[in-house]
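Contributing: when you submit paired examples, paste them exactly as shown. First protein:
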Amino acid sequence: MDESQIKKAAALGSVSAGAPLPEIIRDLLVALGEDPGRDGLQETPERIAQTLRFLTSGYEMRVEDILNGALYPVSYDEMVMVKDIELFSLCEHHLLPFFGKCHVAYIPDQRVVGLSKIPRLVDMFSRRLQIQERLTTQIAETFMEKIRPQGVGVVIEARHLCMMMRGVEKQHSQAVTSAMLGVFREQQQTREEFLSLVMSN
């Protein structure tokens, strides 16, 4: 939430501008009909504040710091893929978690990136308030911009607690999103190879 959004929320009486996060959470507990002073809840506002800061720590991360120069010149032009990257994020509509797996593949163009940087990039964008569609696109577009491969493909498979616990209450539903850029969009064979690797055990 930027400064203008905070001021707007404060004007609506939903949050005190500049108030410490634990204080806001304490007020929320009262609004829900709870007593934040009772046993079991006394430390809850601080715990929730710490949890939220961790789950949204992606706002403090920078792509340049994550990559940290880990780009290596290599004469290799076949697909590189990291699949089954565990993903946890918060739905920006209900602040409920969605979680699942992210699969990222790219075709290098004279250089490759350190493999550990790919999950870190996924973490950076997932540790923000998100929707799955935007998260998928952000990972793909950032990879394309910073790594400059011939192409990149990203697929996310996730379960959303906002669908499982409330609303339609479909506990076994799963959302699948994809983003294909460069040769993954232009060449059907490359796209099909990637998708077949995603579906393989």
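Second protein:
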Amino acid sequence: MVKPRGWLEWEAEQARDWIYRPQAGDDKYSRGVLGVRTGSKDYPGAAVLGVDAAVRTGLGMVRYLGPRRAQDLVLARRPEIVTVPGRVQAWLLGSGINASTRTDAVTTALEQALAEGLPTVIDAGALDLVSRAIGPTVITPHAGELAAMLADEAKPGSASQIAANPGEWAIRAARLFDVTVLLKGAVTHIASPAGARLTVSTGPAWLATAGSGDVLGGILGALLATHFDQLEADAASLAPLAATAALLHAEAANLASAGGPIAALDVADAVPRAVAAFLDSGIAPGARSTS
């Protein structure tokens, strides 16, 4: 792997400024509401993992809108989830969905969410719809998914080429699609069209496990929801929020692993401890970063 130049390694001291701590006067709406369209008949677990991680990251409400089987599993795991349409302040789309087999109804629902212009995380089976996004958007591909996106644009790069030089390809994708790119890998690279270049490299190798990306999507979606008002004014906040999500994901994995194997749900379970580890008494309750 090519060592990146000009990239900033994101640290806990920076990440803590991007984690929202609720005030006494907050309600579930002021703390952020995340809408989630993820999961499918074949991959319902992706919905469970993303929703569980989002709840544990610290927001007011998750509104899950997906297939019945996934909905039932989500409610069995998290009975506090709302499963009817309504007000949301950010979206998480695509995890556990296969773009080649999704129905027209699912495609329409994803496109309608993108058309709302809200802060959005696009993952997996919604990545092909990135051109429909009109709000502050982060895409979260791995090398293979990014290769497919670039092939669709007649700007091919193989998965092996992207994995060998992820920083350069993340920059290319951010410019091409005009969105913030969180390129997953052994080192996570976050690039924005405005020039942000951030990396996270603290996760254990055990984190390379099925469902790990679904957990990351939930963490990131929660952070966008808790900063919805800031993102409306300044889309440049996407890059530090994405890097903070990646760092929380890595720290949760380290806490869950303690040197041993982990599964994706173990990582989600450890997210509150990771959040607590990043916060300290020096941060005023309710503070949001203005940097």
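If you have annotations for the second protein, write them as plain sentences, like these:
Residues 8-278 form a domain with the UDP-N-acetylmuramoyl-L-alanine:D-glutamate ligase fold (CATH 3.40.1190.20).
The mean pLDDT is 93.
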